[in-house]
Amino acid sequence: MLDRLSRGDEVMVWKLDRLVRNTRNLLERLDTFKARDIEFRSLRDDPEAELERDELSERTRAGTAIAVAKAAAPAGARSPLATLRPGGHAGSRHKHSRQTSAEPSG
């Protein structure tokens, strides 16, 4: 289909799933149409709404994965999402150099 389209043509589909399989394909196809000055319309779906729905779905899956990881952690264990502090060690507050009370502090 793309090889037969030219500047000023219009592509019209009933639903987005008749044209693309996923959000990445939708974005690529819309970019191609825009670059070639081709209009696009979906009679049933709004591409913007489709992108928002996919983003919401992705966030929901990520939230579910976090909840599962937290539930699977043993009681009293650190959260699997805990991050290391700067310096490379959890809870590290001091520099690696040691200082004794005999050494000057400045």
TrEMBL record:
InterPro entries: Resolv_N, Resolvase-like_N_sf. Residues 1-88 form the Resolvase/invertase-type recombinase catalytic domain. SUPFAM superfamilies: Resolvase-like. Residues 70-106 are annotated as: Disordered. Gene3D superfamilies: Resolvase, N-terminal catalytic domain. Residues 70-82 have a biased composition (Low complexity). One of its GO terms (molecular function) is DNA strand exchange activity. Pfam families: Resolvase. This is Resolvase.
